[in-house]
Amino acid sequence: MKKFLILLLCASALVLTGCQGSENKEQDKTTFVVGMEVNYAPFNYQLAEPTDTSVAIAGGYADGYDVMISKAIADELGLELVIKSIAWNGLGAALEAGEIDAIIAGMTANEEREEGIDFTTPYYDSKAMIMIVRADSEMAGFTDIQQFSGLNVVGQMNTSYDEVIDQIVGVNHVTPKATYPEMIVALQYGDVDGITAEMAVAKGIVASNPDLTVVNFADGAGFKADTTVSIGLKEGTRGTEFFNAVQQALDKISEETRENYMVDAVNKQPTE
């Protein structure tokens, strides 16, 4: 009986120690770790030299709209911002595994993603999804997405920018690419006739590639799509102190500031 009581007391002590350790881990948290591609200008990209908004990462500096939003939230939370460069398809897994605290990567909340991620309210809305084409092509004068019927159009893998292509009747929906730089090269070399993008991204691409242009579709003749982007937090955290703190920090960033961030991000993005 005496041995049993001793064992029971020891077990209880271990449980209490474990709980206290978990609580202390939360209380001792000093960083806000954010995952993004660092390859999706103007939302996120890599620079060789630091700027007043950049964050050091392996091989250079992460900058762009997502970095600015992340920094504002980290500052409000009183935490140091850490950026992890992660391929688009690996962001969800990294969040689930606890490798990152949040996804801030120009990600749109949709039904499929919401099955494994808890999203905040949107932090930006491009308000339009468009097509990028070669400036010297006949497609530059198109005004309706249906004019791309029979042509080769590509989007980014596992994004709404790939899904909307099927709104074009008879389009040749090219196998999606993993990144926008790959899509741009395919367009410039004539492998595809158009690439889909949201307006903010398109402006950045065209600014860096004068041989490309944006197709301006007539009212009612463009894509129907959600062009908002939100912050992704770990599934099951909605309503928790951390989720609410991130949402409240986001809410404090005014619309004017958000627009200024985008202008700044476009101006700083790499030219190549």
Strand content: 15-25%
Number of E-state strands = 13
Helix content: 25-40%
Major beta-sheet overview = 5 strands, mixed
Radius of gyration: 22 Å
Regions with little confidence, pLDDT below 50 for 5+ residues: 1-25
Features:
22% strand, 272 residues, 5-stranded mixed beta sheet, D-Maltodextrin-Binding Protein, domain 2, 13 strands, alpha/beta, 3-stranded parallel beta sheet
Brief description of this entry?
By secondary structure, the chain is of the alpha/beta class.
Detail the topology: elements first, then pairings.
Layout: H1 2-27, E1 31-36, E2 45-47, E3 55-57, E4 60-63, H2 65-77, E5 80-85, H3 91-96, E6 102-103, E7 117-125, E8 129-134, E9 152-154, H4 160-163, E10 172-173, H5 180-188, E11 194-198, H6 199-208, E12 212-215, E13 228-234, H7 241-251, H8 255-268
Parallel strand pairs: 1-5, 1-6, 9-10, 9-11
Antiparallel strand pairs: 2-4, 3-4, 7-13, 8-11, 8-12
Helix pairs in contact: 2-7
3D architecture notes:
The chain has 272 residues and is an alpha/beta fold. The protein folds into two domains: 29-125 and 227-268, Periplasmic binding protein-like II (D-Maltodextrin-Binding Protein, domain 2); 129-215, Periplasmic binding protein-like II (D-Maltodextrin-Binding Protein, domain 2), CATH 3.40.190. It is built from eight helices and 13 strands. It has helices at residues 2-27, 65-77, 91-96, 160-163, 180-188, 199-208, 241-251, 255-268, and strands at 31-36, 45-47, 55-57, 60-63, 80-85, 102-103, 117-125, 129-134, 152-154, 172-173, 194-198, 212-215, 228-234. The strands form four sheets. It has a five-stranded mixed beta sheet. Strands 5-1-6 form a three-stranded parallel beta sheet. A three-stranded antiparallel beta sheet has the order 2-4-3. Helix 2 (65-77) packs across helix 7 (241-251). The protein is globular, with a radius of gyration of 22 Å.
